[in-house]
C-alpha cells in the first residue's frame, strides 16, 4: 500500500508542512519578504529518507509560490538544489534578491 503524502502551507509556523499518512514528517521553512517566499531550511524526518518525501515537499511548495504569483528565494540548499534539477521552476527564482540575501548572510 502506497503512503499518503500531503503538503500544507502553515503560515503561522512559517513552513510548508509535509505529512505521511497523517504523521508530521518535516517541512520547508520560510519567511515572507513582500512578494518573495524566502526558503531558509528544509527538513524531512530520517524515517522517510529516500522515499521522495522531500521532493514532493519542494514541488508542492514551489507550485504554491507559482499559484500565488510570488517569487522564490531558495537560501535553503535543498530547495536550491531542487530548482537546479528542475528547470521548470527556474523562472520562479528572484536571482537578484537571492544573491543579495546570500551575501548578507555570509557577511554576518
What would your notes on this structure say?
The protein has a single domain, classed as Gcn5-related N-acetyltransferase (GNAT) (Aminopeptidase), CATH 3.40.630.30. 33% of the residues lie in helices and 33% in strands. The protein is built from three helices and five strands. The longest helix is centred in the middle third of the chain and has 15 residues, at 53-67.
Instruction: Compute the number of structural domains.
Output: 1
Average of per-residue pLDDT values: 94
In CATH's first tier, which class applies? Alpha Beta
Instruction: Pick out the low-confidence regions.
Output: none
Globally, the shape reads: globular
List the helices and strands and how they pair.
Elements: E1 5-10, E2 15-20, E3 23-33, E4 36-44, H1 53-67, E5 71-74, H2 77-85, H3 95-106
Parallel strand pairs: 4-5
Antiparallel strand pairs: 1-2, 2-3, 3-4
Amino acid at each position: 500500500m502506497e503512503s499518503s503524502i500531503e503538503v500544507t502551507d502553515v503560515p503561522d509556523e512559517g513552513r510548508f508542512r509535509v505529512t505521511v499518512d497523517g504523521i508530521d514528517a518535516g517541512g520547508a521553512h520560510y519567511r515572507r519578504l513582500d512578494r518573495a517566499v524566502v526558503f531558509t531550511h528544509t527538513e524531512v524526518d530520517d524515517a522517510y529518507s529516500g522515499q521522495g518525501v522531500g521532493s514532493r515537499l519542494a514541488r508542492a511548495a514551489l507550485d504554491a509560490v507559482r499559484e500565488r504569483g510570488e517569487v522564490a528565494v531558495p537560501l535553503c540548499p535543498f530547495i536550491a538544489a531542487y530548482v537546479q534539477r528542475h528547470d521548470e521552476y527556474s523562472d520562479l527564482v528572484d536571482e537578484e534578491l537571492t544573491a543579495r540575501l546570500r551575501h548578507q548572510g555570509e557577511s554576518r
